């Protein structure tokens, strides 16, 4: 199958990820932090090793400020629900994934927070001034995506972070800046220090090339959040109180050690190829895809035509065909994997006017070839021609 659903989960995984996970399960896999024997110690060392790699990738000074989660959605929930309190005001955007929107709307529904929604422009970009104009004395958090999973639009996180840092210098109640980097880590450079990010949520199974069931949350040392789960951490076991230090306070229960080891190998793959090389390849594939689809009749492309401002995503529709019908035809008849429907972003579809139809999303990885795009374009051309004849 031609796999163009990397925005959901990258496939294939680098061979080194598969091989090392298999070796680890055969030779080393034990429970980290719970036992004093050699296998447990080695497992703990491998987890720390991945933690250090992640910290280096995102420019974090202290690897212990990163806690592992099962995905970015869990990390976002921990950051939102563990930080916000009654009476807080939060700023978010119309381009957010439901992993941001749902917990925020739940808090708003329960009358715990006041919520402001900044709408993206016609290409899905969020304006810096629009974010800043919503700030109130009660504002305690700005939470937004680095790049839209629907349109690929890359937001100016660095400028927003810098402006919030200036504002925080004059405020007693600081505004936490939380960023969803699920679609960008591994393919677009991210630096939490330069971008003044307080809380970052990342997915291990997307462009970090790790297995499913892996993600993480970064919390800077000046930001306090509450744990949502309580239980065994392998530390302070004599106490009935959850540890109050990172990462133990957020890592309850046995970690997905084999997944974390695989994630570490995925990061090694990225470092070996070079993130700039990965990004350049991504831009080339996006450019090639946009050019190929733009030539087709009855095909509408959404988002910016500037590939330098897009992550590895191109979304489109064929006439008024249901997007999931198109995705089904691409899969069954042409053996091409894409994603149709709402992509867990109802607010974004509402903004783009596609709530009923959805969109067909093609998303790319470092393994995507121009010949894959040729196959997609030819398939879409044939589907569009059949649609026109109906």
Structural write-up:
- There is one protein chain.
- With 390 residues, the chain is an alpha/beta fold.
- The chain is built from 11 helices and 12 strands.
- It has a 7-stranded mixed β-sheet with strand order 2-8-7-6-5-3-4, sandwiched between helices. Strands 9-10-12 form a 3-stranded antiparallel β-sheet.
- Helix 6 (157-168) links the parallel strand 5 and strand 6 (176-180).
- Helix 8 (275-294) packs parallel to helix 11 (370-389).
- The mean pLDDT is 96.
Order of strands side by side in the largest beta sheet? 2-8-7-6-5-3-4
User: Approximately how much helix is present in the residues?
Assistant: 25-40%
Number of helices: 11
> Which band does the percent of strand residues land in?
5-15%
Average pLDDT: 96
Using the alpha-carbon principal axes, give the shape. globular
Order of helices and strands: EHHEHEHEHEHEEEHHEEHEHEH
Q: Which blocks of ≥5 consecutive residues have pLDDT under 50?
A: none
Q: How widely separated are the two ends?
A: 28 Å
Count of distinct strands = 12
Q: Describe the main β-sheet briefly.
A: 7 strands, mixed
State Rg. Answer: 21 Å
Structural class: alpha/beta
Summarize the structure.
This protein is of the alpha/beta class. 38% of the residues lie in helices and 14% in strands. It is built from eleven helices and twelve strands.
Labels describing this entry:
alpha/beta; 12 strands; 14% strand; 7-stranded mixed β-sheet; 390 residues; 3-stranded antiparallel β-sheet
């Amino acid at each position: 199958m031609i796999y163009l659903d990397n925005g959901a989960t990258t496939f294939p995984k680098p061979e080194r990820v598969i091989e090392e996970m298999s070796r680890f399960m055969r030779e080393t896999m034990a429970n980290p932090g719970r036992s004093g024997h050699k296998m447990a110690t080695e497992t703990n060392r491998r987890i720390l090793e991945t933690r250090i790699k992640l910290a280096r990738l995102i420019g974090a000074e202290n690897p212990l400020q990163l806690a592992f989660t099962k995905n970015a959605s869990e990390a976002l929930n921990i950051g939102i629900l563990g930080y916000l309190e009654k009476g807080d005001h939060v700023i978010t955007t119309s381009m957010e994934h439901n992993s941001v929107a749902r917990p925020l709307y739940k808090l708003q529904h329960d009358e715990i927070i006041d919520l402001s929604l900044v709408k993206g422009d016609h290409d899905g970009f969020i304006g810096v001034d629009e974010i800043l104009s919503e700030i109130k004395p009660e504002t305690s958090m700005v939470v937004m995506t680095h790049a839209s999973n629907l349109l690929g639009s890359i937001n100016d996180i660095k400028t927003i972070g810098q402006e919030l840092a200036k504002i925080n210098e004059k405020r007693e109640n600081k505004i936490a800046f939380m960023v969803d980097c699920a679609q960008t880590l591994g393919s677009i450079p991210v630096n939490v220090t330069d971008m003044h990010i307080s809380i970052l949520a990342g997915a291990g199974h997307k462009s970090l090339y790790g297995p499913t069931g892996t993600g993480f949350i970064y919390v800077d040392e000046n930001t306090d959040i509450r744990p949502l789960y309580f239980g065994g951490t392998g530390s302070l076991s004599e106490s009935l109180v959850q540890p109050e230090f990172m990462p133990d306070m957020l890592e309850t229960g046995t970690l997905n050690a084999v997944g974390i080891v695989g994630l570490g190998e995925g990061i090694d793959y990225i470092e070996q190829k070079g993130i700039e090389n990965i990004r350049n390849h991504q831009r080339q594939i996006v450019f090639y895809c946009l050019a190929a689809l733009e030539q087709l009749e009855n095909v509408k492309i959404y988002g910016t035509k500037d590939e330098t401002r897009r992550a590895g995503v191109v979304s489109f529709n064929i006439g008024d065909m249901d997007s999931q019908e198109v995705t089904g035809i691409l899969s069954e008849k042409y053996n091409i994997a894409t994603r149709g429907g709402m992509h867990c972003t109802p607010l974004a579809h509402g903004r783009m006017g596609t709530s009923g139809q959805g969109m067909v999303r093609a998303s790319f990885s470092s393994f995507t070839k121009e010949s894959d795009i040729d196959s997609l374009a030819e398939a879409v051309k044939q589907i569009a021609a059949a649609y026109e004849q109906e």
